[in-house]
Amino acid sequence: MSEVVPTVLVVEDSRNDAFLLQRALKVAGAACAVQVVRTGREALDYLSGRGAFADRTQYPMPRLLFLDLTLPLITGFEVLTWLNDHPSARIPVVVMTASSDERDKRHALQMGVKAYLPKPPNGEVIRGILQRVGLVEPNAAPGGPYGMTPLPSSQ
Questions:
Q1: Is the distance from CB of 17 to CB of 67 less than 8 angstroms?
Q2: Cβ contact 2:70 at 8 Å
Q3: Which of 22, 88, 91, 137 lies 20 to 30 angstroms, CA to CA, from 43?
Q4: For residues 26 and 106, what is the distance between their CA atoms, to the nearest angstrom?
Q5: pLDDT tens string 117-142
């Protein structure tokens, strides 16, 4: 039987920001596969296993979600609402944003996010988050063993 590799889902419309987060995850020693979607609609399709993301072997439920709030089609707050409305999809969420709006931060934290972080991501902060959710060993060397996989667009 093959080992099940935990998955991190990155919901980020900026290719540069997604790349920087993927780099921070690698530097932090993430022991996981990373999947990237670019819109709120793709995030909901992934989380609900619809369309291009129906194969749960290829697109497993993530153990951790990094979420941008300002997304095309469906916002990050709408993704958070969907997660809160679907208890079977409860996963830790970390908001990564360029917004300095304190109202956004308060609202996201009230909606249950585990952390609200400014962009670009800091590898040390990311490592602490990964340790809290069990995706990196506290004394593991940086540069996790699993790759980072961009996803096909479901549009």
A1: no
A2: no
A3: 137
A4: 29
A5: 988 878 888 988 998 888 886 665 55
Per-domain residue ranges for the chain?
7-150
What strand order describes the sheet that includes 7-11?
Answer: 115-118, 93-97, 64-67, 7-11, 33-37, 148-150
Q: At 37, list the tokens.
A: 């979607």
- Per-residue model confidence as pLDDT tens digits over 12-42: 999 999 999 999 998 888 888 999 999 999 9
Which pTM value belongs to this model?
0.86
Judge: domain 7-150, CATH 3.40.1350.10: no
User: What's the CA gap between 108 and 89, in Å, rounded?
Assistant: 17
